C-alpha cells in the first residue's frame, strides 16, 4: 500500500540544508515566512505496509533503545528470532542498515542477516566477505586527534570503527559544540565527511549514505522486487526515507515529531517491535 499522498512532512516546507545542533543532531532547515506551527503527529503505519515489503531497519534507536555508550546496547534473542521469522516471511527481503560497522553488527548477533554498515559504505550478506573501501590513513589521523581531544574529558569517548571513527559526548554534553568544531576542521583538512549522529560526530569517507544503500540493495536479490519500507530514528535515516519514497515505498520515523521525509511514525523502539510482531502475525489493518 503506498503512503498517503502528501503525508510526508517534506510537503509542509522546503528543506534546504542540513545544520548541526549542539547536541550533535542535524536538522533540516525550513524556508518559511511565518512562524512554524507545531509539527503534527504522523499517522502510525498500517500493518499491511509490510506485505510485499523490502524492509530496511536501522539499528540504534530503532531496534534497540539508545544506551549510555556504544557498547551498552543489548540485542536479545527474542528480537533476533522475530527478525529471522520476518525475513523468512518476506522471502529474504530484510536488511539492517546501520552506522555501525558490519563487524560490529555481526558481533551484536546479526550475522545471519543482510547488512549495510557504516552509513551505506559497507555491504555483506550472511557468510559473505564484507564489500567495503579500505580504511584510509586519514581516518587513523582523525582517530588520533579525537583521542587527544577526549583525553582528560570524562564522558567523551572515541569509537574506533572499521573504516571510520566516532567521537561520542553523551556522557559529557558540554563538549558537544567543541566536538563538532573539531570534526568539521578535521574533515576539511583530511578529506573526510562529517556524519552527525545522536550525541556523536563521526568522520568517514564520503560518497555513500543510507539512501544510496537502499538504492544499491534494491537492485540486488533478495531485496529487488519488494516495496522499500525504511524504519529509522536518526537524522542519518532521512536519506533512507527519501530513497524508499522515491522507489515507491515509504519511511517510518521512530520518535517524537520532527521535520522529516518519513510518511508514518512510531513513538519508540517498543512500538517498532510491536509493529513488526503484528505484521508477522498477519494482523493487517
Ligand atoms: O545507524 P544506527 O544503527 O542508528 O547507528 C548510528 C550510531 O549508533 C551508535 O551510537 C548511538 O547509539 C549509542 C548506543 O545506544 C549511543 O550511546 C550514542 O550516543 C548514539 O550516537 C554507534 O555507536 C555508532 O557507531 C553508530 O554510527
Automatic annotation (TrEMBL):
Pathway(s) it belongs to: Glycan biosynthesis; trehalose biosynthesis
InterPro entries per UniProt: HAD-like_sf, HAD-SF_hydro_IIB, HAD_sf, OTSB-like, Trehalose_PPase
A Pfam family reported for this protein in Swiss-Prot or TrEMBL: Trehalose_PPase
Endpoints of the signal sequence: none
BP-aspect Gene Ontology terms: trehalose biosynthetic process
GO molecular function: metal ion binding; trehalose-phosphatase activity
Source superkingdom: Bacteria
Gene3D superfamilies to which the protein is assigned, alphabetical: HAD superfamily/HAD-like, Trehalose-6-phosphate phosphatase related protein, domain 2
Protein name as it appears in the record: Trehalose 6-phosphate phosphatase
EC number: 3.1.3.12
Organism: Sphingobium herbicidovorans (strain ATCC 700291 / DSM 11019 / CCUG 56400 / KCTC 2939 / LMG 18315 / NBRC 16415 / MH)
Amino acid at each position: 500500500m503506498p503512503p498517503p499522498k502528501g503525508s510526508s512532512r517534506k510537503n509542509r516546507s522546503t528543506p534546504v540544508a542540513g545544520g548541526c545542533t549542539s547536541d550533535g543532531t542535524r536538522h533540516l532547515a525550513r524556508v518559511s515566512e511565518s512562524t512554524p506551527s507545531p509539527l503534527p503527529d504522523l499517522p502510525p503505519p498500517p500493518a499491511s505496509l509490510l506485505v510485499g515489503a523490502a524492509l530496511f531497519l536501522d539499528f540504534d534507536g530503532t531496534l534497540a533503545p539508545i544506551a549510555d555508550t556504544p557498547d551498552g546496547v543489548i540485542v536479545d534473542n527474542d528480537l533476533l528470532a522475530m527478525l529471522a521469522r520476518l525475513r523468512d516471511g518476506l522471502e529474504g527481503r530484510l536488511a539492517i542498515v546501520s552506522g555501525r560497522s558490519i563487524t560490529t553488527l555481526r558481533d551484536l548477533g546479526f550475522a545471519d542477516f543482510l547488512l549495510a554498515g557504516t552509513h551505506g559504505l559497507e555491504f555483506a550478506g550472511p557468510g559473505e566477505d564484507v564489500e567495503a573501501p579500505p580504511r584510509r590513513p586519514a581516518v587513523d589521523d582523525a582517530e588520533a586527534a579525537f583521542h587527544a581531544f577526549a583525553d582528560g574529558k570524562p564522558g567523551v569517548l572515541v569509537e574506533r570503527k572499521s573504516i571510520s571513527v566516532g567521537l561520542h559526548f553523551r556522557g559529557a554534553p558540554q563538549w558537544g559544540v567543541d566536538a563538532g568544531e573539531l570534526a568539521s576542521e578535521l574533515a576539511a583538512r583530511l578529506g573526510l565527511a562529517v556524519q552527525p549522529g545522536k550525541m556523536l560526530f563521526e568522520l568517514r569517507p564520503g560518497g555513500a549514505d543510507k539512501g544510496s544503500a537502499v538504492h544499491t540493495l534494491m537492485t540486488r536479490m533478495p531485496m529487488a522486487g519488494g516495496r522499500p519500507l525504511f524504519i529509522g530514528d536518526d537524522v542519518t535515516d532521512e536519506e533512507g526515507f527519501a530513497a524508499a519514497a522515491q522507489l515507491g515505498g515509504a519511511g517510518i520515523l521512530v520518535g517524537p515529531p520532527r521535520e522529516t521525509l518519513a510518511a508514518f511514525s512510531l513513538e519508540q523502539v517498543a512500538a517498532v517491535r510491536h509493529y513488526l510482531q503484528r505484521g508477522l502475525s498477519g494482523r493487517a489493518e
